[in-house]
């Protein structure tokens, strides 16, 4: 048994399978950052820091004639979202019910996916995470309220990336509102804005809950680095006669290696 | 050439299992060679001969490690147990027991299904939109 304490929960094997499958399905759609940045790991729950290969000077020395420096590492962040499931509903699932109420799990998955997206794209300063839009050295592009204009905005972003030697293919992360607007829009002549964007990017257009505006970034690799300690998992916290308290949890670090490899499009 | 690395009729084994068995045999042979060189080195007094044999034993260390890595890559549970034992300071037997329990859930009254780590196995989602 590991720190998730799953085998202590009053949940059957079938129940765990149901919960894991539901969580996997909800998360895989919403984890936008993982569709666009480099992913390494998982390196395990006991993995606490990312090697940056850099040092910082240390005041003083333990012995005259010796210079001291200290290694710099990027500590991993832990994200955790708790939820409670009804034991009656879990029992119904064991009996074969097809409509088990897992709404709290779904909401928890939505929240933690959003949190991961926000940390990667916009940063999480209290934990030392610098996001893609924060790190970008490119001029940001103002988005129009007219979705027909999006191909022009994205083409300009791609041009900015090419101009500094950042090769494609390129991807586009779109916040919820922008994504909906794009898939509903057609340009003059009936051409779908979504299809036009795909041709410009030569890469994916990703629904990215939590992203403000949009981000165009290179997918050539080596520019945006997500390091997973413990990948998203469902753990057990406790239970009473009515409910089981569970949580979704992960640990990760994120760093931008090439700040010029992304352009923020702001609403 | 014999085919005694197979314990079961080879024609009944899959190609993957035959490859696995060949590498297991290679692993054994490399371990034997390491042991042979260790014995020869312990009694050889000629320094030049010792240098040659030490170099040859180094090759066997490499071959053994490559065979082992191949087998671990093809056998996730073996790999997980090995990760709990190899390159760890402390009590080897204790690490072995813990790693086995962790990997197989043999200490749990009701083993948790799926990945014993509890991970949802999402990893990179590149290529999914």
- How many beta-strand runs of chain A? 12
Order of helices and strands of chain A: HEEEEHHHEHEHHEEEEEE
How helical, in percent, are the residues of chain A?
25-40%
Main interface: chain pair and counts: A-B, 34 and 25 residues
Number of helices of chain A: 7
Q: Tell me which oligomeric state these chains represent.
A: heterodimer
- The radius of gyration over CA of chain A amounts to 22 Å
Helix content of chain B: 55-70%
Terminus-to-terminus distance of chain A = 47 Å
Topology order of chain B in helix (H) and strand (E) letters: HHHH
Biggest sheet of chain B, open or closed, and with what strands and sense? none
Strand content of chain B: under 5%
List the helices and strands and how they pair.
The complex is a heterodimer of chains A (267) and B (129).
Chain A (H helix, E strand, L loop, with lengths): L12 H18 L7 E3 L8 E9 L11 E7 L1 E10 H8 L8 H20 L9 H4 L5 E2 L7 H14 L6 E5 L1 H9 L8 H9 L3 E3 L6 E5 L5 E5 L4 E7 L3 E14 L5 E5 L1
Parallel strand pairs in A: 1-9, 5-12, 6-7
Antiparallel strand pairs in A: 2-3, 4-11, 6-8, 8-12, 9-11, 10-11
Helix pairs in contact in A: 1-3, 5-7
Chain B lengths: L14 H29 L3 H28 L1 H10 L6 H13 L25
Helix pairs in contact in B: 1-2, 2-3, 3-4
Description:
The complex is a heterodimer of chains A (267) and B (129). With 267 residues, chain A is of the alpha/beta class. Helix content of chain A is 31%, strand content 28%. Chain A contains seven helices and twelve strands. Chain A has helices spanning 13-30, 87-94, 103-122, 132-135, 150-163, 176-184, 193-201; strands at residues 38-40, 49-57, 69-75, 77-86, 141-142, 170-174, 205-207, 214-218, 224-228, 233-239, 243-256, 262-266. In chain A, helix 1 (13-30) packs parallel to helix 3 (103-122) and helix 5 (150-163) runs parallel beside helix 7. The radius of gyration of chain A is 22 Å and the shape is flat. Chain B has 129 residues and is mainly alpha-helical. Chain B contains four helices and no strands. Chain B has helices spanning 15-43, 47-74, 76-85, 92-104. The longest helix of chain B is centred in the first third of the chain and has 29 residues, at 15-43. Chain B is extended, with a radius of gyration of 20 Å. Residues 107-114 of chain B have low confidence and may be disordered.
